[in-house]
Protein backbone atom coordinates (compact mmCIF):
# COMPACT_ATOMS: atom_id res chain seq x y z
CA UNK A 1 0.00 0.00 0.00
CA UNK A 2 2.85 2.39 0.81
CA UNK A 3 4.42 2.04 -2.66
CA UNK A 4 1.06 2.78 -4.28
CA UNK A 5 0.69 5.98 -2.25
CA UNK A 6 4.21 7.10 -3.13
CA UNK A 7 3.66 6.38 -6.83
CA UNK A 8 0.34 8.26 -6.68
CA UNK A 9 1.89 11.33 -5.06
CA UNK A 10 4.99 11.43 -7.26
CA UNK A 11 3.08 10.88 -10.52
CA UNK A 12 0.44 13.46 -9.57
CA UNK A 13 3.08 16.02 -8.69
CA UNK A 14 4.99 15.43 -11.93
CA UNK A 15 1.74 15.68 -13.93
CA UNK A 16 0.88 19.01 -12.32
CA UNK A 17 4.37 20.41 -12.82
CA UNK A 18 4.40 19.24 -16.44
CA UNK A 19 1.13 21.05 -17.15
CA UNK A 20 2.47 24.19 -15.46
CA UNK A 21 5.63 24.01 -17.59
CA UNK A 22 3.51 23.55 -20.75
CA UNK A 23 1.40 26.58 -19.88
CA UNK A 24 4.23 28.84 -18.75
CA UNK A 25 6.49 28.07 -21.74
CA UNK A 26 3.54 28.55 -24.10
CA UNK A 27 2.71 31.93 -22.60
CA UNK A 28 6.37 33.00 -22.51
CA UNK A 29 6.97 32.02 -26.13
CA UNK A 30 3.80 33.84 -27.22
CA UNK A 31 4.80 36.98 -25.32
CA UNK A 32 8.22 37.05 -27.01
CA UNK A 33 6.58 36.92 -30.44
CA UNK A 34 9.46 34.69 -31.57
CA UNK A 35 7.90 32.23 -34.02
CA UNK A 36 10.92 29.92 -33.91
CA UNK A 37 10.58 29.69 -30.12
CA UNK A 38 6.82 29.10 -30.38
CA UNK A 39 7.44 26.25 -32.86
CA UNK A 40 10.11 24.77 -30.58
CA UNK A 41 7.78 24.90 -27.54
CA UNK A 42 4.96 23.26 -29.50
CA UNK A 43 7.34 20.52 -30.62
CA UNK A 44 8.69 19.90 -27.10
CA UNK A 45 5.17 19.67 -25.67
CA UNK A 46 4.58 16.70 -27.98
CA UNK A 47 7.96 15.06 -27.44
CA UNK A 48 9.05 14.56 -24.70
CA UNK A 49 6.19 16.42 -22.96
CA UNK A 50 3.27 14.11 -23.63
CA UNK A 51 5.47 11.07 -23.03
CA UNK A 52 6.03 12.40 -19.51
CA UNK A 53 2.51 13.66 -18.83
CA UNK A 54 0.36 10.79 -20.10
CA UNK A 55 2.03 7.98 -18.10
CA UNK A 56 1.98 10.17 -14.98
CA UNK A 57 -1.76 10.79 -15.36
CA UNK A 58 -2.38 7.07 -15.95
CA UNK A 59 -0.40 6.11 -12.82
CA UNK A 60 -2.11 8.83 -10.78
CA UNK A 61 -5.60 7.89 -11.89
CA UNK A 62 -5.05 4.14 -11.67
CA UNK A 63 -3.47 4.19 -8.23
CA UNK A 64 -6.01 6.73 -7.00
CA UNK A 65 -9.01 4.71 -8.12
CA UNK A 66 -7.42 1.56 -6.70
CA UNK A 67 -6.80 3.15 -3.29
CA UNK A 68 -10.25 4.80 -3.26
CA UNK A 69 -12.17 1.63 -4.02
CA UNK A 70 -15.04 1.23 -1.57
CA UNK A 71 -14.29 4.45 0.32
CA UNK A 72 -17.14 6.51 1.71
CA UNK A 73 -14.91 9.54 2.40
CA UNK A 74 -16.26 12.73 0.78
CA UNK A 75 -12.82 14.04 -0.20
CA UNK A 76 -11.90 10.75 -1.85
CA UNK A 77 -15.21 10.72 -3.71
CA UNK A 78 -14.61 14.31 -4.87
CA UNK A 79 -11.14 13.38 -6.14
CA UNK A 80 -12.55 10.37 -7.99
CA UNK A 81 -15.25 12.53 -9.61
CA UNK A 82 -12.67 15.02 -10.92
CA UNK A 83 -10.42 12.44 -12.58
CA UNK A 84 -12.74 11.61 -15.53
CA UNK A 85 -12.97 15.34 -16.35
CA UNK A 86 -9.19 15.66 -16.18
CA UNK A 87 -8.75 12.63 -18.45
CA UNK A 88 -11.43 13.61 -20.96
CA UNK A 89 -10.20 17.19 -21.10
CA UNK A 90 -6.72 15.91 -21.85
CA UNK A 91 -7.80 13.26 -24.32
CA UNK A 92 -10.45 15.23 -26.22
CA UNK A 93 -9.08 18.79 -26.00
CA UNK A 94 -5.47 19.12 -24.90
CA UNK A 95 -3.85 16.33 -26.91
CA UNK A 96 -5.61 17.20 -30.21
CA UNK A 97 -4.77 20.89 -29.63
CA UNK A 98 -1.13 20.03 -28.99
CA UNK A 99 -0.84 18.03 -32.23
CA UNK A 100 -2.68 20.63 -34.32
CA UNK A 101 -0.80 23.59 -32.86
CA UNK A 102 2.49 21.80 -33.48
CA UNK A 103 1.43 21.17 -37.08
CA UNK A 104 0.50 24.83 -37.57
CA UNK A 105 3.66 26.10 -35.87
CA UNK A 106 5.95 23.80 -37.86
CA UNK A 107 4.17 24.99 -41.03
CA UNK A 108 4.63 28.64 -40.02
CA UNK A 109 0.88 29.28 -39.87
CA UNK A 110 0.25 31.81 -37.11
CA UNK A 111 -3.11 33.29 -37.98
CA UNK A 112 -6.53 33.47 -36.39
CA UNK A 113 -6.93 29.67 -36.38
CA UNK A 114 -3.65 29.16 -34.51
CA UNK A 115 -4.54 31.67 -31.82
CA UNK A 116 -8.10 30.39 -31.48
CA UNK A 117 -6.85 26.84 -30.88
CA UNK A 118 -4.07 28.23 -28.65
CA UNK A 119 -6.71 30.00 -26.53
CA UNK A 120 -8.74 26.80 -26.21
CA UNK A 121 -5.59 24.92 -25.18
CA UNK A 122 -4.66 27.51 -22.54
CA UNK A 123 -8.16 27.49 -21.04
CA UNK A 124 -8.33 23.68 -21.02
CA UNK A 125 -4.84 23.55 -19.50
CA UNK A 126 -5.88 25.94 -16.74
CA UNK A 127 -8.93 23.78 -16.05
CA UNK A 128 -6.76 20.66 -15.66
CA UNK A 129 -4.23 22.51 -13.51
CA UNK A 130 -7.08 23.67 -11.28
CA UNK A 131 -8.68 20.22 -11.00
CA UNK A 132 -5.37 18.47 -10.31
CA UNK A 133 -4.52 21.15 -7.73
CA UNK A 134 -7.85 20.51 -6.00
CA UNK A 135 -7.10 16.78 -5.97
CA UNK A 136 -3.67 17.41 -4.47
CA UNK A 137 -5.17 19.74 -1.86
CA UNK A 138 -7.74 17.11 -0.86
CA UNK A 139 -5.09 14.40 -0.85
CA UNK A 140 -2.89 16.45 1.47
CA UNK A 141 -5.83 17.03 3.79
CA UNK A 142 -6.52 13.31 3.84
CA UNK A 143 -2.93 12.40 4.61
CA UNK A 144 -2.58 14.82 7.53
CA UNK A 145 -2.54 13.15 10.89
CA UNK A 146 -5.29 14.52 13.09
CA UNK A 147 -3.81 16.57 15.87
CA UNK A 148 -4.86 15.54 19.35
CA UNK A 149 -7.09 18.09 21.01
CA UNK A 150 -5.18 20.11 23.49
CA UNK A 151 -6.12 19.64 27.09
CA UNK A 152 -7.22 22.83 28.81
CA UNK A 153 -4.67 24.25 31.18
CA UNK A 154 -6.07 24.43 34.71
Characterization of the model:
21% of the residues are buried. The chain has one domain (2-142). Helix 1 runs antiparallel to helix 4 (112-143) and helix 3 runs antiparallel to helix 4 (112-143). It has helices spanning 2-32, 35-68, 74-106, 112-143. It contains 4 helices and no strands. With 154 residues, it is mainly alpha-helical. The chain crosses the membrane at residues 45-65, 85-103, 115-136. Keywords: Membrane, Transmembrane, Transmembrane helix.
List the helices and strands and how they pair.
Layout: H1 2-32, H2 35-68, H3 74-106, H4 112-143
Transmembrane segments: 45-65, 85-103, 115-136
Keywords: Membrane, Transmembrane, Transmembrane helix
Average residue pLDDT? 92
* Spatial extent as radius of gyration: 19 Å
Whole-number count of domains: 1
Order of helices and strands: HHHH
Poorly predicted spans:
none
Shape: elongated
What does the largest sheet look like? none
Q: Helix fraction? A: over 70%
Question: Which structural class do you get from the secondary structure elements?
Answer: mainly alpha
Alpha plus pi helix count: 4
- What fraction of the residues are assigned to beta strands by DSSP? under 5%
Through-space gap between termini: 43 Å
Annotation, overall tally of beta strands:
0
